[in-house]
Amino acid sequence: MPAPATCAPRSLAIDAALRAFLAPDADPARFFAFFDRRRQVDFFADSGILASAGFLPELARRITERVLPPVRDRASLKDAVGIVFHGRHDLAWLNALPEALNRRFWAIVQPVAGPDAGLPRNVTEQMLEALLVVSHRVSALGLEPELARNHPDLLQRESPFIAQSVEAARFVDGCRRALDDPASPHEDERHLVVLVEQCRAVLTRVRRTALTRGASLSLTYLLVRLWQSLRRIEALAAVLGAQFRPAAADAAAAQWSDLMRTAFRAELERGSVRRHFTRLVGLLALRVTDNAAQTGEHYVAETRSQYAAMWRSAMGAGLIIAVMALDKIFAAKLGWAPLNQAFVYSMNYALGFVLIYLLHCTVATKQPAMTAQTIAASVSEDYTARGDLGRIVDLVAAVARTQLAAILGNVTVALPTALALGWALGARKGAPFVDAEKAHALLADLDPLRSLALLHAAVAGVWLFVSGLISGWVDNWTVYERVPERIARLGWLRALLGVRRAQAFAGYVGRNLGGIAGNFLFGVMLGSTGAVAALFGLPIDIRHIAFAAANLGYALVALGFALPWPEIAWCALGVALIGMVNLGVSFALALWMALRARGAEFRRTGELLRLLGREALARPGRFFLPPRASTSAPA
């Protein structure tokens, strides 16, 4: 069976050695001998579990080891794995091993019960020691103030984190007695597993509480580390317990396989800076996606009244955007230095988007960053709980028609408003307020082939995604730091507004600070991208569908509509493609992060697409208009 083509020659040698090891007459003692001669406690206790140092110290370590390779200790199993598997393609090679070969490998090295097939005494002793290390670590982490803040009962009653540590010590003592005297009574690991489940229940409650009280990055890091450690305790206990209970051997096989795969993969990724950043993205996503999902529910029109409200909201935003586009054209005439002009552009965008938000209007391209979170929540809940794709189809249809309403609401108002403002200003001036050169430049920026309009639209899509993250992060921070309560306690504010009005103002800030921050910074990003890119000599700017539609209107009025219809249609197509790229990039990034945050692995994409296709052919109208009497549950 040939090895993957991407493997290096050294990996081919490892491949041949491993295949010889996996021969039908292979002896697992050869594998355990590799273990037996090395120190294993840190391998079983640490590999695959987040480092205690935190994100930045771990990042510094990985970068330093890229420059100065670490000195490996051959007496340590952890380091020995890194010595054997140190090539760039080794992880890909391990992942590419055929499934049958993987099953054979784990079957050979799986420790099973019985007098002749158990783990060597030294390996068992070190696994017992590793179990104690992880258990005591969980006991200490379970008393962290971050946990008690979100679950005060931990300080008022017996903590399951401490109880599992006591039980783990009792279990280890029993295993050691059984090793010394096989005839001695031995209590199995089931009571320890029950306490581990109680610890998991506490972590679940803490995370639910964090949705309303907010979560810090340190709390998120702590929860992930605790979850990984509890899983390690369960795996080690199952493997060790199987040595004394033959009936538990099958149940321990899955735990052993998961333990070894996780530990080996972690050691192969030990120096990966990219993997470390990916893990940080996942941690940050846990903090912001649930807030964004709750916000996204407001961008899904399930009923005709909600659909009409979305149209009105989007039309209001289109009116303001037309004015913002006009302001930018006037600002461009000032001839200021690039950074000064970027500041003016940024404030125009930022204040305009904040005004749109405060007036409860909707910018179409802001929706995907929120609705993607709602779809991801539906996938992670409906799919994992019931495998129900019908509900997801309903949600996708609702999102599609709502998004269409927002786009059309923005464009159908921004374009006519631009035409009207351009005509009124031209009539007052007695000449087009935009000269022909500027008008042709505006049209050239919309050309989907002869300009970088689509690339610039993708840049805007990235900023849309980032602004959604900022909104979610600020919402989380506002709740976690109890900003509204602290504002309401300001003495000078109470004296100025009175207690009741100060509390009302504080509540308003708490509800809207995330949205204001996200919209303001989104405007700053849009306004400054071109100037910052120019400093580095990069041809990067932004294109946004609603502003592109308004610019098309101003250019047409300035040229007196003296353009061939094919050219006008080509520019209109450019506007539509800009919108598609805006939405596609923002939605894809937000959906990717939301799924990563929830740990959802959706493996029925093809089935879902086929179901969506059949639904679009059978009832296409539901993707454009909501039913007259919606019977579906809220998104």
Describe the structure in your own words:
The protein has 635 residues and is an all-alpha fold. The chain has two domains: 9-273, no CATH class; 293-623, Glycerol uptake facilitator protein, CATH 1.20.1080. The protein has helices spanning 9-21, 28-36, 41-46, 55-67, 77-84, 90-95, 99-109, 121-141, 145-150, 160-180, 190-213, 217-241, 249-268, 273-296, 304-332, 338-358, 368-385, 389-429, 436-444, 453-480, 483-488, 491-497, 499-535, 545-558, 565-598, 605-618. Helix 14 (273-296) packs across helix 20, helix 16 packs antiparallel against helix 23 and helix 22 crosses helix 23 (499-535). It starts with 8 loop residues before the first helix and ends in a 17-residue tail after the last helix.
Spell out the key features of this protein:
mainly alpha; disordered C terminus; 73% helix; 2 domains; 26 helices; 635 residues; elongated; Glycerol uptake facilitator protein
Number of strands: 0
* CATH architecture identity of the largest domain: Up-down Bundle
What class, by secondary structure content?
A: mainly alpha
Gap from first CA to last CA: 49 Å
CATH topology of the largest domain: Glycerol uptake facilitator protein
CATH class of the largest domain: Mainly Alpha
Residue share in β-strands: under 5%
User: Which consecutive residue ranges, at least 5 long each, have pLDDT under 50?
Assistant: 1-14, 112-117, 292-297, 382-387, 630-635
Please tally the helical runs, counting DSSP H or I stretches of 4 or more residues.
26
Whole-number total of structural domains: 2
- Following the backbone from N to C, one meets helices and strands in this order, namely HHHHHHHHHHHHHHHHHHHHHHHHHH
**Biggest sheet overview:** none
Shape: elongated
The gyration radius over C-alpha positions equals 30 Å
Fraction in helix:
over 70%
Indicate the mean pLDDT: 78
